[in-house]
From TrEMBL:
Keyword Transcription: yes
Name of the protein: RNA polymerase sigma factor
Family from the record: Belongs to the sigma-70 factor family. ECF subfamily.
Species of the source: Carboxylicivirga sediminis
Family annotation (SUPFAM superfamilies): Sigma2 domain of RNA polymerase sigma factors, Sigma3 and sigma4 domains of RNA polymerase sigma factors
Amino acid sequence: MTVEEFNQAVNQYSDSVYRFILKNIKDEDKAKDIIQDTYEKLWKKHDEVNFLKVKSYLFSAAYHTLIDLTRREKKQAQWDDVDFKNHSHTDGYTDLNEVLHQAVERLPETQRMVVMMRDYEGYSYKEISEITKLSEAQVKVYIFRARKFLKEYIGNIEVLV
């Protein structure tokens, strides 16, 4: 990749990669640091990365940097021990966006990533698989489980409206 192609990659993809990371980490400063680290990694490997695959490389590198950060901060919860029925939302509420946002935040890290990539960013299962280094079957299972949890958390839509 040339310097011009690198600059073009920055112009084309930095905003979408930033939004993706920000949706997951909810901290603007950390998201900016992750983006900075991601582009630094790209620059260090610019002669190895094909410009046609730079978008996939950027999302993969940003995703893995985010995972490394969350592991370092040990903020990953033990979701196997949580009884989700105790955390379901059944009170009447009119701000559906806020309820959905709260539900997404309760998802395990991997499930939140793949759901956001699929439903917010519009990636195909194959693209998500390439970015996250999971098999397509794993991606589908994580998305299914995440959607099932979201449905259980939100409960009956008539209660919310």
